[in-house]
From TrEMBL:
Residues 9-159 form the MGS-like domain. GO terms for cellular component: cytosol. Belongs to the methylglyoxal synthase family. The active site is at D74. The keyword Lyase applies. Pfam families: MGS (PF02142). Substrate binds at H22, K26, T48, G49, T50, T51, S68, G69, H101. It comes from Stutzerimonas marianensis. This is Methylglyoxal synthase. The keyword Lyase applies. Catalyzes the formation of methylglyoxal from dihydroxyacetone phosphate.
Length: 159
């Protein structure tokens, strides 16, 4: 496998924030989001199905809803991360309950790490992310240089 090089990209001041919560964590995410409503309102919100509907109702903010996580919503969020259409992930996951879609959850966490986006896995880390001075600023981050990766692979195939 080819080594992946990295390039510097820029996260804009207005972030695209994905919000995901397992069933037993939805109430905590809603309480947290209500406390953080003013900060969240300055950004674009995307969420998996039920979580997104609940957030939209409770916050009275626009939330773009994917389908439910177990039906592919986690994968939809992951695809957007890989396409650089999600800038942050807040995922209140339940470490005590086995999830039938656990491979999707692991894939989502992995793709967030690969694309170097800020990731909060619980209320404390989400508070830290949203209180960061970087939240409302454009700032650089390192991301995989996918174009160079493709070029290197193509060069290996050409005689």
């Amino acid at each position: 496998m080819n080594r992946i090089d990295f390039i510097t990209a820029t996260l804009s001041a207005r972030k695209r924030i994905a919000l995901v919560a397992h069933d037993h964590c939805k109430a905590r995410l809603l309480e947290w989001a209500q406390r953080q409503k003013d900060r969240l309102a300055r950004h674009e919100l995307v969420a998996t199905g039920t979580t997104g509907l609940l957030l939209g109702e409770h916050l009275n903010l626009p939330v773009e809803c994917m389908i439910s996580g177990p039906l592919g919503g986690d994968q939809q969020i992951g695809a957007r991360i890989a396409e650089r259409r999600i800038d942050m992930l807040v995922f209140f996951w339940d470490p005590f309950e086995p999830q039938p879609h656990d491979p999707d959850v692991k894939a989502l966490l992995r793709v967030a790490a690969v694309w170097n986006i800020p990731l909060a896995a619980n209320e404390s880390s989400a508070d830290y992310l949203l209180s960061s001075p970087l939240l409302d600023q454009a700032h650089p981050l390192q991301v995989p240089d996918y174009d160079n990766y493709l070029l290197a692979r193509q060069t290996k195939k050409d005689p």
